[in-house]
Structure formats: C-alpha cells, structure tokens
Sequence to fold (334 residues):
Amino acid sequence: MKPKKIFIWFGVILSLILSATIGYMLILDVSFIDALYMTIITISTVGYKEIMEMDIVGKIFTMFVIVISLGLIGYLLSELFKFFSEGSINETWRKNRMKKEISKLSDHIIVCGAGETGMHVIQHLILKDIDFVVIENHEDAIFQLKNLDVNYLDDDATNEEVLSLAGIAKAKGLITCLAKDADNVFVVLTARELNKNLRIVARAHEHKSDKKLKIAGADNTVSPDEIGGKKMAQMMISPNVQYFVDNIIDTKNLSIDMEEVSINEGSELIGKKLRDTQISEKAGLIVLAIRRENDQFIFNPKANEVLRHDDKMLVVGSKEQIKTLRQMSKEIIL
Fold:
C-alpha cells in the first residue's frame, strides 16, 4: 500500500469516530466529550463502564460500531504491517535520495520511456558513463530500472512538472521513445518549450510522424523498424562491413569507439592543416570525416584540409585517445 492510501484509511477511521460520536450524542443525549469517550472505549474494546445505562437502540448502535471498527482497524493494521515489512520505508527513502541526486545533475540526458528501445538506450548510456534520468511508470520497466540501479522517476513523461523534476532546464539532451507517437510529440513540444537549447531525439513509430516530431521541435527522429530493415539488408549484402561497423559502436566492444569531437574557441587546431595538427601523433586516432555548417561532410579529409572553428570531426579510436583530442579541441569533457 502506498503512503497516500494509508492516509486515506486514517481519514476513514476518523470519519467513523466522528460519526459514532454524533450518534451517541443523539441516542444517549450526552455531551460531545461523553459521546467521544463512549466511542473510543467502544472501538478500542477496553471494557470500561458506560457513562449511562443504554436502551436497546444504544446497544444495537454500539454493536454496529464495534463490528465496523474492528473490520476497518484490522484492515488498516494489516496494511501498515505490509508497509513496514515489505520495505516501503526503504523504497520511499531511496526515491527521495534519487530525487536529490537528480536535482544535482546538469548537462545530463533525460530518457522518456524504458521499453525495448528505451532499455537499449539506457544500457548504451550506462556503458558510455553518461549522466541520465529515466522517466517511466510501467511496473515491469520500473523493476528492470531498479536492477540496473539508475536514476528514474516513476511518473508520466508527458507531465510538464515531471520533466521539470528530471532537471530539463539543466539537461543537454532528451530522448523520447514512448509507445505512442502522440505521446512523443507531446513530450517534444513540452521539452522544447522548457529548454530552447535542448537536443531532442525522438522515436517515430509511423513514417508520417517524422514530420510532426520535427515540427514539434525534435532535432532528429529515429524509426527502429526502418533502421532494423536497413541493417538486415546490409548484413545480407555486406556482412563483413556491417560486422566492422557494429563492433565500433556496439557496447559489447569497448576497445574502439566512434565519436564526434567539436573544435571550440581557443583550440590549437583552428587554422591549421590536418597534417600540421599532429592529431595522429598526439592522440593516435583516425579522422574519418569533418562536418561543417549546413551538414556539409568532408569524408576522408586530405592532409592539407584546414580545420575551422566549430568543425565537427568524426573520429575512431579508444576512449583515452578521444579524450586527448577533446582536450586539444577545447571541448568540455563531461
């Protein structure tokens, strides 16, 4: 039983006491204190002497009060026992602790939905050691989140207050992968209103939802069915190529990784040719491509390609190598 429900039952008991007190006042024609006294000794069944002789109506009323009170109080006591014995206090303490931890987060990611897609997102974020908060309210998913020992809110992701509790004002990104496209659109609209600079990635179940999600404010949309279909075809056509790609970005292989590194103001790389940056010598990784404004991609950039401020380098290397490049690029390491 939840604490809220226990308080409701306490209210029912108080209502019974008040009703019985008024009943005794009318039946026995006594004061409020005397009637309350009769009510308490009747409900508690302590056996003290009545304040006055009762007629048949008073006796029937007393028996009625005893039967009702024993049932209600017995049920309340059993629920209280469950509340204490099933670790509800520990659960409440754990939720409060999580809320405090969530309130301290910044530049984190909010994941809305922990279904099949959401759980893959969560596992990837765990292995990437990225701070995140999950919003989910389905019992089975909550059970899995507890086992993973991650921060979560057991609530509705479409609720604006819940998004605020998840720290959306300080978050750097939001991934919504709820079961319905309509809910994802609503989350995107609300999130964009609460944080204009938030990066939002949304799941699109239907092809026509892609446009709606982007109009609502999503930066990118993903269709798991479409991606799955493309991957299956690629595995049939070029299985070795797909295996290589999977083992770069797959969480099962942490030896190498594929990341995007931004060149920020003050970086030693700005204005230098790729050969002169000594990225290979200092960081020991491979620059696969450079992305510039308007999504212009330069694949397999030449050695004489001059790097610019705000260039995004798509690189392959180990975590430590990528960390070294981030330092050279003056990118904030989270």
